Each structure stands twice: as structure tokens, then as C-alpha cells.
Amino acid sequence: MANVVLSTATSSAPSMAPRYIGWDDMDKSRFYIFGPMMFLGVRATVYPAVYVKTLLQLHHSEYSGTIDAFRKIFRANGARGFYKGFAANALGMVGGCVYISSYESSRAEIGLLNNKFNFVAHHNAALMQNFLAGALSSCISQCWLVPLDIISQRQMVQSPSTPMTNFQILGSILHADGVPGMYRGYMASLATHVPASAIWWLTYGFFTQTWHAKFQHSDSTSVDLLTRAVLGAAAGAVSSSTTNPIDVVRTRLQAERKTGDSSSFSAIVRQVLKEEGLKGFSRGTSARVLGNVPSSFLITFVYEFVKRISQKDRPLFEWSSSAASFAESWTS
């Protein structure tokens, strides 16, 4: 995600921003080796908040709020209780690679088209590229992520007395609904993640442009990475809070197996309005923000670091020593 910082900063304040590390500047073998390993750690860190958010958004949730859910789950199952469905969710790393790759490539193509046809003025071009590429890359990655989300969410909410493995859940879905069952709530997922992705990149680009316009860029790698991470976290708070209402509907579509008219997007919207009013669409907002803010912080930090160690013109051992120096500066 953090390439937005480089790209927007480069276009808005070239003298202050560092050199943009483009997709063609990176050694893809390094990127696809180190990236998934680091992003798996990020997923493991924020997954408890994702799990709690899902439980809170379900119909007739047994928890009164985020803190109540964390307390009861830990009391019943300990720390392990927060990782139900994590195995399927972790496979989303593949979708993450697709997302990043499609973002980088589509952003470059959108830039070329804008240069040719001049759709948007130059000073706004970077933000337009961020917004459209964020939306397009999310559309592409959801083809892989939606089935994994469904399996993960079904495992989250299954009864402890009759536990099922990921393969058993997959088999039951295919037996009952066929392949279309794996894409239950697909349009709701697009309606949730596409605007969330577009808003994140747009907001992050705006924050970064503003930051570089007001403050001198630091030559310190650690300060630069942490600054980008904080801006990413702020963008995460904006995107997750603004798209939470549609995420409530998506979660219920995918996790609560219903049939007939009650399974439609509009039916769930009517049900929420009837039983809980507009307040029902805010369920899980705090847990969602709690998961997205640190997730955005960590993903931005990790992605920007991975881009640096993946540069073709920089030997890997140089970044090994840089990482050691960074760790030493924060532990001393």
C-alpha cells in the first residue's frame, strides 16, 4: 500500500520526497518471498480484531460490545479462541499479492492514459491514479478472497459441539449450493472492499501530499517508514469507518446461511433497519477500526520496507544491516 506515499509525494514535491520505487525497479523474486512472510505476521497480529468484528456484526450477537466480546472469548477459550478460521484467512496472502501486483500495474497504465488524453490536471493526477487503481485492484483480488472469507467466517461462527475443518466446510458449501455458494455475497463484498480500497488510497495520497507540502522529508529510514505508517493508519481509520454499514450486510450474507428472499442484500438491509434501526449498521465499527488502523500501520510499514529490500540496484545485505540498525535504535 505504501507506494502511494512515494508516488503522490513525487508528483507534489519532487525536491522533498525520496525517489519513487516503481514496480519495474523491484526484484520480483525478493518481493514475493519476503512480502508474504511479513504480511502473514501482520494478519496474525490483527486477526483477533477481525474475528471479534465478525461476531459483533452477526444477527443476534451474544456480545454487547467490543470489550465484552474480547473479555468473554478470552475467558472461555484463552488467546487461541481469537484464531478460529485463521487458516483460511491466512491463504488470503495470495489475494494480497494479486492485489498489490494489480494495483501497481494498473496505476502505471492509468498514468500513461492520463498523460495521453489528459483526463485530469497534472497536480491531481496522482490522486486520481490512486483512487482508480485501488478500486480496480480490489475488484480483481476479490475473486480469490471472497471464497476464503466465506470459509473463514463459517468456521468463526460454527458450534463448538460440532466443529468442522476448512475442507469439511468447503465440501458442505459445494454440496448445498455448488460453486455459486462460494461467492455468496460477492456483490456485497465488492460494494464493501472496492470503495474501502479506493478511499484508502485516495485518503493516503491526500495525507501524504499534504505532509510533504508542509514538512521536509527526513533522510532517516526509520523516521520515513514510521511517518508513512502513521499516515497509512489514519487512512485506514477513514476507510474502515465510512464503509462499515455495507460490511455489516456483507458479513451477514456470507456467515449466516439463509435461503429464499431472506438471503438477499435488500432483505438484510430491511431486517437491520426494522430490528435495530440505523444504529444496526454501526455494529462492529469500533472493532473494525481497531483492526484496520494497526493493520494499515503495519502493512504500510512492511510493504514500504519490502519495496526497499526488493530494489534491483541494492544488494540485499545492505538492507540486512539497515534493519539491524533500525532494530537497535528502537531497543536501546
Tell me what you see in this structure.
By secondary structure, the protein is mainly alpha-helical. Helices cover 74% and strands 0% of the residues. It contains 13 helices and no strands. It has helices spanning 3-12, 28-57, 66-77, 86-90, 92-117, 122-157, 166-177, 186-214, 221-242, 244-255, 265-276, 285-309, 316-331. Helix 2 (28-57) crosses helix 5, helix 2 (28-57) packs antiparallel against helix 12 and helix 6 packs across helix 8 (186-214). The longest helix has 36 residues, at 122-157. It is globular. The chain starts with a helix and ends with a helix.
- Beta fraction: under 5%
Using the alpha-carbon principal axes, give the shape: globular
Total DSSP E strands: 0
- Which structural class should the secondary elements be placed in? mainly alpha
Main beta sheet: none
Order of helices and strands: HHHHHHHHHHHHH
Mean pLDDT: 80
Fraction of residues in helices? over 70%
Query: What Rg, in angstroms, do the CA atoms define?
Result: 21 Å
Unreliable runs: 1-15
Q: Total helix count?
A: 13
Q: What is the end-to-end distance? A: 29 Å
